[in-house]
Structure to design on (702 residues):
């Protein structure tokens, strides 16, 4: 991959899908999880800020920037639960990586597919550090866009062998089960949430309603379980009953953001939580015993997108799955932007 | 212009230049100024937030979002004064307009050229409302990338007939004078700042050093002058001596941002300033008499970019100066992102 001064590599949705398949979906998930782990290990280095959200009655548009001092990344992402009914994606996203030293973009990419990959990879990283070592069975509550990615990531990275599916919409469960055929996972479709979590070592909730729902109630959750609560990711949107939170040790990405957006918005502002990165560096013990309930209250943080952007950028070193976009004005003399504009007029006249 | 669900119109640098010439540079400046005036008139409607800046030792990368409740826009922009020495632009930018109702992007565009146009258009709007009606002569201090745009915007919109140029680098002045040939402006190149502002009704400063400089000292500025201070736009970067500020009536875009980034960072946090939009709506009188010194402390605000993005979007209704980017994942079933990914694998195998 070569980058001219005035052009920026762009990865379209089609190219992102092809890049993923060239790598293999599970291998891509594992590679991205590796980038996320690497970045979580150097967490204190990053410029961190809660995402910049613009809320409307029907959804939210967010910008999620971060920087490690050498590279700068941000993601544009929307969340519109009602979109599904209109045949649109709930979440679409794109992102950018730039060089801190010059401010010039070095990568523009779709991030709808990429966010699906990185969200699942993040759950897998959390699960790897927090679930019981002998965990083999996972319940997947909510069988929408993110469900297959979650199942495959935990299969590949955490050794999950069985996934138990439940969704209030049986069609979603059918779709998910069909998509997971041939992946090596044992897939069990369940008629109730209760049935899905019976015997599960890991429970992942990923539902999309923008409201305080109660996907899991307290009596459903047994000792020793690890929970990934992925779907509660904005103010007023939670999935778990408060009593489960009170019984769990809670792990988060960035407390300042999670207290606003995550399950813990139901708790007091000073309720103790542990930052996941400190478990990964070994500063804090994650799981202490086999009876403990661990809860990863995942809302998605800018550093995970940064990791995913770095993964794409590195893949493009050996892949041609990109186009070059004429996105940066590059006059011969940088102070002569106007002259560049005038010369374009001459070219138009000559053509 | 038609927009598929999965594609987004993209305006490259080349297409932005061609769109500008199709319209005519001065006409484009006037049209954009019109959009800015319209948006300033409905200022209270907008979601406003100071830009989200990531500073490094050599520059800054910023995201500037805003929304009027129907459309959402943001700009990515860097500011790296040292870039010029490396043959790079000090400022490069791109931006996006999205539909608030769905969160889907409707326009992606280069904004380096567009920012140059909107910055000049904004100065012209401020000058139109604040300068003396009989103003004909303008001093342009700093003859870099922005200078010709400023001169042309004030020529077209405010009736300026003569521009007096000064830059510490005579080559920049030579470049600017050359570029302004044939525009109808009388161009006078000056050897000192003092010479440039002699007899000027309007003084525009636009220099790029990231430091507290003193481009204008107090004794240089006479009664009745209007000043556009454009170059001081980040913490630690100012152009005017504090004493000039003390003698001026100061007009700003968004006080919360300008107090951090503008000339008024030199003043007390409660120093009185007037918001430009209130002058435009007529709520507050701008210029009261011919002796008053008015100062527009312009730092550039997200709403001006929003106006410029709206202008581009509207131009594309009758122009084909765009490409369609495959930027949004659009599965047939919005919950079946994974299925879309699987089908791409089948297509790759079939090809």
């Amino acid at each position: 991959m070569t980058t001219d001064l005035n052009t920026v590599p762009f990865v379209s949705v089609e190219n992102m899908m092809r890049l993923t398949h060239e790598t293999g979906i599970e291998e891509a998930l594992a590679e991205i999880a590796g980038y996320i782990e690497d970045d979580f290990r150097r967490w204190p280095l990053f410029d961190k800020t809660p995402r910049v959200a613009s809320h409307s009655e029907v959804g939210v548009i967010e910008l999620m920037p971060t920087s490690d001092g050498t590279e700068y990344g941000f993601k544009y992402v929307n969340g519109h639960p009602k979109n599904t009914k209109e045949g649109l994606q709930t979440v679409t996203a794109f992102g950018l990586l730039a060089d801190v030293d010059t401010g010039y973009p070095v990568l523009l990419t779709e991030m709808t597919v990429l966010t699906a990959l990185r969200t699942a990879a993040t759950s897998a990283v959390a699960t790897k550090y927090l679930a019981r070592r002998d965990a083999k069975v996972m319940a997947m509550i909510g069988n929408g866009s993110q469900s297959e990615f979650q199942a495959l990531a935990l299969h590949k990275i955490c050794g999950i062998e069985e996934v138990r599916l439940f969704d209030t919409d049986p069609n979603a469960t059918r779709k998910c089960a069909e998509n997971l055929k041939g992946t090596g996972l044992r897939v069990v479709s369940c008629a109730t949430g209760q049935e899905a979590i019976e015997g599960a070592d890991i429970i992942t909730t990923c539902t999309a309603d923008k409201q305080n729902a109660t996907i899991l109630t307290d009596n459903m959750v047994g000792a020793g379980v690890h929970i990934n609560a992925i779907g509660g990711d904005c103010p007023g949107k939670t999935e778990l009953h408060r009593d489960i939170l009170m019984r769990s040790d809670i792990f988060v990405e960035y407390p300042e953001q999670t207290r606003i957006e995550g399950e813990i918005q139901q708790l007091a502002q000073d309720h103790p939580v542990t930052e996941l990165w400190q478990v990964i560096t070994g500063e804090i013990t994650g799981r202490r015993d086999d009876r403990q309930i661990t809860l990863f209250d995942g809302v998605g943080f800018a550093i995970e997108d940064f990791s995913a952007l770095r993964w794409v950028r590195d893949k493009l070193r050996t892949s041609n799955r990109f186009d070059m976009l004429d996105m940066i004005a590059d006059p011969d003399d940088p102070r002569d932007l106007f002259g560049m504009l005038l010369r374009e007029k001459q070219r138009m006249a000559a053509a």
Remarks:
- The mean pLDDT of chain A is 93.
- Residues 4 and 324 of chain A are 9 Å apart (CA to CA).
